[in-house]
Amino acid sequence: MTTNLPMKLSHLPNSLPLDGAVRIELVEGVPIFRASSLVQGRIEALLIKQKESALTSEEEKELDEYEELDDYLSFMNRMIRNSSLIQNFKF
């Protein structure tokens, strides 16, 4: 996992669908961003292929971009959860 996450993503994977790529779930009243099942399926397909044979350079780039997006969503989810905790903390 990247330790110095950018505040902006430089690009998205070309295979990322324009609609329905990310879903929002409520976890204990806090919105959490998650990759859609379609995106998760593509990532799993790339990971399976990576274990069985070498990925093309384009596929490696795509997998790296998905990892960057996952890191970013995780970062945003932590920020949202932390903000929620601070707002709910009573002095």
UniProtKB/TrEMBL annotation:
<protein>
    <submittedName>
        <fullName>Uncharacterized protein</fullName>
    </submittedName>
</protein>
